[in-house]
Amino acid sequence: MYAVIETGGKQYRVAPGDVIDVERGPEVGDDGSVRFERVLMLAGDGGVEVGRPVVEGALVRASVVGEVRGPKIKVFKMKRRKGYRRTAGHRQDLLRLRVEGIDGAGEGKPAKKAAKKAAREAAPAEEKE
After folding, report:
1. Which has the closest alpha carbon to 6: 63, 60, 65, 66?
2. Burial degree of 50 (CB within 10 A; 0-12, 13-18, 19+)
3. 68-117, pLDDT tens digit by residue?
4. How far apart are CA 2 and CA 13, in angstroms?
5. Do the bridges between strand 33-36 and strand 59-69 make them parallel or antiparallel, or are there none, so unpaired?
6. Which of 44, 83, 97, 115 would staple 1 via disulfide (CB 3.0–4.6 Å)?
């Protein structure tokens, strides 16, 4: 089972136990946990459920492993024939997270269809009595 989440303007494919590096934007709880509610897609035993734009009721839980810094990126500015050159570097602050679990997983379209069908079959039986 896995999910596609969105945070910091980027999308990540995550499964329970994965370790991911995200930009330092998500709110971290007092116990070091992070909750992602923007789940764009869920895939599990029940099938695949794609959100429009997000999957309702889905949640990805993660815990903070640590704070790290990304690779160094060189920024170079130049204006030709003017003698203007500037070089700078940048390292993004990242938050390393371990995905603990996915809530709402395994409830893809096939499972929902089966539940609706069972509800429809049970309703007429009650009306006949």
Report:
1. 60
2. middle
3. 999 999 999 999 999 999 999 999 999 999 999 999 855 555 556 666 66
4. 7
5. antiparallel
6. 44
